[in-house]
Design a protein that fits this description.
This protein is an alpha/beta fold. It folds into three domains: 89 residues, Arc Repressor Mutant, subunit A; 97 residues, 3-Layer(aba) Sandwich (D-Maltodextrin-Binding Protein, domain 2), CATH 3.40.190; 97 residues, D-Maltodextrin-Binding Protein, domain 2 (3-Layer(aba) Sandwich). Helices cover 41% and strands 19% of the residues. β8, α9 and β9 form a beta-alpha-beta unit. α2 packs across α3. The chain is elongated and about 75 Å long. It starts with 10 loop residues before the first helix and ends in a 6-residue tail after the last helix.
């Protein structure tokens, strides 16, 4: 008879274990998977017997995940996620044509939104729901298929599709520039500088790129979103460093001007981060290809 240790552990036991890890207790796990606390406890005991290892330390009625349990949970989580996702795809493969995409707010408004008519024309049966998010999160736990990410390809438990790098330029209002004539980047050091809250070192890097040395500590108002930053600069609050593609309309209509031609480009980039099983989802494959085609195509008219 084949040794059962060559087979997969019982799925019900794995499911109870994963739920207990996720929700922190046997009772909470039972509420979420439809079992009693004692049933969850029995399933985990089955798994521990099967593994010949304890996964939880028992302290009376209280249990705590031990080091073996933590390591095992970390190793099996991706496989269980793939099983759930693959099952969902099979069940819904004939009807699912909707996607949930998280996007950086400014990117969604200025880059994605003007291009969406082309997506609808190409895939009229596809529905894409967008939500604004600024920081990484667990795609599966939050119910998203993908997200727009700026930074390094370091989003956990996700596949990264490179989109493009940005070039940030210094901009201000024409009226502000008329009151504060600038001859060189060095002239900006003592002027009011506006900051994006997640890129507080951008000005330091811009000055360094321009060859300006001995920069003092730079301070100024901070804004969470680039479009808020652009509005403040257009209103005459100071000079902002903003990705050029986000402010093409303001530059075209003259509400923002670039006092210098210098632009800042670094190793960070925009990525489409997708659930690790993205290749099983035809809608997500098509959305990914559409994004790549849009990057290669001329910018839509505004």
């Amino acid at each position: 008879m084949k040794d059962t240790r060559q087979l997969l552990p019982p799925m019900a036991a794995l499911n109870s274990f994963a739920a207990a890890v996720r929700y922190g207790s046997f009772s909470a796990a039972g509420e979420h998977i439809g079992l009693t606390q004692s049933a969850v406890s029995r399933q985990i005991a089955v798994l521990e017997e099967w593994l010949q290892n304890s996964l939880f330390d028992r302290h009376g009625r209280r249990v705590e995940l031990n080091e073996t349990g933590k390591a095992y949970a970390e190793q099996i989580r991706p496989a269980l996620d793939q099983i759930r996702s693959a099952t969902e795809r099979v069940i819904n493969k004939t009807s699912r044509r909707d996607l949930s995409i998280a996007t950086l707010p400014s990117f969604g408004m200025r880059w994605l939104a003007p291009r969406l008519p082309d997506l609808t024309a190409r895939h009229p049966d596809m529905t894409v729901n967008f939500a604004a998010r600024s920081f990484p999160f667990n795609l599966r736990d939050e119910g998203f298929d993908a997200a727009i990410h700026f930074g390094q390809p370091d989003w956990p438990n996700a596949s990264h599709l490179f989109l493009f790098r940005e070039k940030a330029v210094a901009v201000c209002s024409p009226a502000w520039l008329a009151k504060h004539p600038l001859k060189s980047p060095h002239d900006l050091i003592d002027k009011p500088l506006l900051f994006q809250s997640s890129r507080l070192t951008a000005w330091d890097r811009w000055f360094a790129h321009c060859g300006v040395k001995d920069i003092p500590q730079l301070r100024g108002p901070m804004f969470e979103h680039f479009l808020m930053l652009a509005q403040a600069a257009a209103a005459g609050a100071g000079v902002a460093l903003i990705p050029r593609f986000l402010i093409d309309p303001e530059i075209d209509n003259g509400s923002l001007v670039m006092p210098f031609d210098h632009s800042l480009e670094n190793e960070d980039a925009y990525y489409l981060v997708r659930r690790v099983d993205w290749e099983t989802d035809s809608a997500l494959i098509q959305f990914s290809q559409w994004l790549q085609d849009q990057i290669a195509a001329p910018s839509p008219s505004t």
